[in-house]
Amino acid sequence: MLRRSNPRPQLDWADRAVLAALVRRLPRSLREHRLVTPGTILRRHRRLVAKKWTYPNRTGRPPVDNTIVALIERMTRENTGWGYRRIQGELLKLGHRVADSTVRRVLERLRIPPAPRRDTDTSWRRFLHAQAASMLACDFFHVDCAATLKRVDVFFVMEVATRYIRILGTTTTNPDGAWTTQQARNLLMDLGDRADDLRFLIRDRAGQFTASFDAVFSGAGIQVVKIPPRGPRANAHAERFVGTVRCEATDRLPILNEHHLRTVLQRYTNHYNHRRPHQARQLAPPRPDPPIAEPGCTSIRRRPVLGGLINEYEHAAA
C-alpha cells in the first residue's frame, strides 16, 4: 500500500536517525543488507560538501567595477554626443575591456538617455566654455602718477580661456582711434598663427574703439562684439583683471611716471601669467613657468616681486 501511494517515500533526518538506531538492533546477517542505493550515498555526500564549502551566489556575468561605472558616467556627462560604441572605444584605450551592452546597462541604471536624445540641447555652461577658447577681451584702465600728476592710460587684452594678459601699450595723451588701431595691428603680429583659432573680441563702446580698430580684427576673421551700454559686467573677465592689478600692484605703489608704470606692469604681468594661481584654472597659472616639483622637498626659497610687494615660492636647487 505504501509503494502504491508513494513509489519513492521522502525520508527526513529524523526518519534516517530512527532507521539507523533500529538497524543496530538487527542481527549481523541482516545488517549487511543496505537500505539505500549507492546513488543515495553519493547524493548525500555532495550535499554535505555543498554545506561545508559555501560561496557567494554569482550567477551570470560578474558585476561591473565601480571605477568603470564612474568613468562611464564621467565620459557621458562631459561628451553628450558620445554613443555606446564611442565610450567603449575610449575605455579600451584606457585598458578597460567592456562590451557596448555593458555601457548601455550602466547608462540605463544611471537613468542617462542615449546620445541622440542626450545631445539635443547644449547647456549654457558648456556653450560658454566652448566659446571662451576662441575669445579675447580688451579694455582700458588708468593710473595717476605720483611725481608728474599725469594720468597714464593702459590698454590690455586677455585670452579668456587661459586668462593670459598682454599689455598692448601705455600713453599719457588721450588715446585716439589711430593709436588704438596700431595697437591692434601689433597684437595680431604677436599672435601669429594663434590668431586663426580666435573668433571673437569683446570690447566696450568707448570712443577709442573706432571702425578702423574693428576692421583690423575683421580682416583676421575675428568678430568684434560690443557690450551693452553701461554694462561692464558683460566684459567681466577684463574688469576682474583691472580690479586685481589695482589691488595687488598699482594701488600699493607710488607710480612715479610712465616709464616706472611700464616696468611695474611688465613684472606684474610676468607674475600673473606664469606664477600666480587662478581659481578659474584649478589654481594653476595661465602658462606655468617652473615645473611642479615633487612633494617632500623641505628647502623652499622666496622670490620677492616688486620689492617684496608680492612673494613667489619655489623649491631651492639642491
From TrEMBL:
Chain residue ranges for the region called Disordered: 274-297
Signal peptide per UniProt: none
GO biological process: DNA integration
A Pfam entry, by short name: rve_3
Spans traversing the lipid bilayer: none
Domain Integrase catalytic: 112-293
Organism expressing this protein natively: Saccharothrix espanaensis (strain ATCC 51144 / DSM 44229 / JCM 9112 / NBRC 15066 / NRRL 15764)
Designated name of the protein: Integrase, catalytic subunit
InterPro entries, alphabetized: Integrase_cat-core, RNaseH-like_sf, RNaseH_sf
GO molecular function term, any single one: nucleic acid binding
